[in-house]
Design a protein that fits this description.
Blueprint: E1 5-8, H1 17-25, E2 27-30, H2 37-44, E3 48-53, H3 61-66, E4 72-75, H4 85-91, E5 94-96, H5 103-119, H6 121-129, H7 132-136, E6 149-153, H8 157-168, E7 172-176, H9 182-188, E8 191-192, H10 196-201, E9 205-208, H11 222-228, E10 233-236, H12 245-253, E11 259-262, E12 281-283, H13 292-310
Parallel strand pairs: 1-2, 1-3, 3-4, 4-5, 6-7, 6-9, 7-8, 9-10, 10-11, 11-12
The chain binds NADP nicotinamide-adenine-dinucleotide phosphate.
């Protein structure tokens, strides 16, 4: 398969593993390294048969149209919001993603954010590092997390993994998605809310874990934020666009929301500066799945899908 031309839209990962493995097994083009994109396209557009992308730089309609012989888009992510799936379907281009292998790490990240905001872990760390413990004494008490009401927006693979972890903390689980999952609700005693606002009014922390679509963009709006309220928290490990960020910032600055744990932002890597000085906000640079173990599993799945496609075998995780 060394002659099959694969173009990566961006580095995809801080690790070199995915790039090295594609380079070993296919003919790799690193699109972001070509200063003159026009020259690159003139010389190579016709030979590219696969695109590997991620959530930073996906494959929109314009990109897909640049490559007349494109057969497959294999994304190094479970989220598909940066890929024009309709265009791919129209053109008979296959699409694969990396579900399941990243679920544990993203759920772990959600738990870390919940614990960090309830127990003020980062604020306490800053307090010790600044020398304030010695000069100012003990910090104020924090809020217990165990036993709290956790509302999950999107009880899919990641949402369910968060629920299982929160159950172990004795939390009461509720969820909102397009339909009630009666088998889960009955077996696990999870409460289903058909309205996000109602769930937000009945939880201590709302965790966003759904897929980003035109329907879920800004699903967390002012009404939802106000329903969570000044004693509640919002954790987002989905996508930045799930939350109306201007409303989130306003609510945090005005004290209408208790706090937030955010792995994702609307205009990454730009983050609203108003959040920088808020002690009740914990922010991560979109690292939900970023561990060595999961990075390798995701890379192996991307490559296994490419190999299956070019060997004319069934795809492992087909989307289109
Ligand atoms: P999944 O299994 O497909 O779950 C997606 C969930 O979204 C489903 O429970 C679905 O519920 C819900 N949903 C879809 N449309 C909805 C709507 N209109 N209203 C309410 N809920 C809706 O996907 P997953 O593997 O759990 O991944 C979920 C998302 O996490 C990804 O799409 C991605 O954006 C994000 N993610 C983030 C990171 C990170 O690093 N922060 C890493 C990986 C993934 P119903 O079908 O029942 O409506």
């Amino acid at each position: 398969m060394e002659n099959v031309c694969v173009m990566m839209t961006c580095p995809c990962s801080p690790s070199s593993y995915l790039k090295e493995e594609i380079d070993k097994q296919f003919k790799l083009f690193r699109y972001w390294e070509f200063a003159n994109k026009e020259d690159f396209l003139k010389a190579n557009a016709e030979s590219i048969r696969a695109i590997v992308c991620n959530t930073a730089v996906g494959a929109d309609a314009e990109t897909i149209d640049l490559f007349p012989n494109l057969e497959i888009v294999s994304t190094f992510s479970v989220g598909l919001d940066k890929i024009d799936l309709v265009k791919c379907k129209e053109k008979g281009i296959r699409v694969t993603n990396t579900p399941d292998v990243l679920t544990d790490c993203v759920a772990d990240t959600a738990m870390s954010l919940m614990l960090a905001i309830f127990r003020k872990i980062c604020e306490h760390d800053r307090y010790v590092r600044s020398g304030s413990w010695a000069t100012k004494g003990d910090m104020e008490l924090t809020t217990k997390f165990s036993g709290k009401r956790v509302g999950i927006l999107g009880l899919g693979r990641i949402g369910s993994a968060i629920a299982r972890r929160a159950e172990a903390f004795g939390c009461l689980i509720s969820y909102h998605s397009r339909s009630e999952k009666s088998s889960i609700s009955n077996a696990k005693n999870y409460k289903y809310f058909s309205s996000v606002v109602d769930m937000a009014s009945n939880c201590d922390v709302l965790v966003v874990a759904c897929a980003l679509t035109s329907e879920t963009r800004h699903i967390v709006n002012r009404e939802v934020i106000d329903a969570v309220g000044s004693k509640g928290y919002i954790v987002n490990i989905g996508r930045g666009q799930h939350i109306d960020e201007a409303e989130l910032v306003a609510a945090l600055v005005e004290g209408r929301l208790g706090g937030a744990g955010l792995d994702v932002f609307e205009k990454e890597p730009e983050v609203p500066k108003e959040l920088f000085n808020l002690e009740n906000v914990v922010m991560l640079p979109h690292v939900g799945s970023n561990t060595w173990e999961t990075d390798k599993d995701m890379a192996d799945l991307v490559i296994a899908n490419l190999k299956a496609h070019f060997l004319k075998q069934p795809l492992l995780t087909p989307v289109v």
